[in-house]
# Entry
Amino acid sequence: MGKASKVKVEVGEVRELVDLIGVLKDVADMKYHAMSAQRVKFNRFNESFTEFFSLVGFSQVKHPLVSNSNPNSVILVITTERGFIGDLNSRVIARALEEKEKNPQAQFVVVGKKGVMKLEGMGHKILKGYEDVEDRGFYEVAVDIKTYLVKEVMENRMGKVTLVYPWPKDYTTTKPRAVKLLPCEDLLPKQAQTVEKFRQVIEESDPLDMTGYLADLWLSSKIYEIFFDTNLAAASAQTQQLDSSLGKMRKERDAVKLRYRKAKRGDIDKSLREVFSARMMVAK
# Structure
């Protein structure tokens, strides 16, 4: 087998790899845009949520989920189990460690096997880990986390929760983001501005109970929304990573093609030299 034949096999392999990466990129791209279209449902819910609860005055109600002085803090870290996402999880972990530096006594609650492995591998203790998100589904795990956090806060073992997750800023940019989850003091500021318009509303339930229900419902929705954003960020990171890989593989394909053409010319030159040498030997 000549050198050109060997390189031709390599050309075929690289071409197939380019096609495969191209298909994976197209799938990730379509998934990102499909999920982006679904993202609006959270905005509609938040608007309806605020309008509904603006009817009743909660701003003066003191509830542990909305306001507390417990110094015990938790950093809730959400990572993704997707592949082809580059260093997305590593950047999320780095952002979580920045929050840990601000509050050395804070403990980690981690979502995702990769996040748990990274932090434990770095010697950090995990208060609670959720490693079965892919098997159980985002909503079920979101409700589980909400139930755990609410119980810890209501029983005064926990006061503040900071959530760190990969945020999909736009199609080409994902970055780690830290937000305050509990106490949800910012939940009702708009409601306090509009409650003066509804002085005649009859409150059949205790405002304290309604505040707890409101915070509980908002917490479930917020965690699920963050899970959705994490999935969206993973799709964005996949698209960018695969696009970068596709560009590199196309360059490799072109380089292999060039090697093939050179090898083919080399084989032809070699054959011509051999034929010429053979004729010279016969002539002698």
Observations:
- Helices lie at 3-38, 40-53, 88-102, 113-121, 133-136, 138-154, 189-194, 207-283.
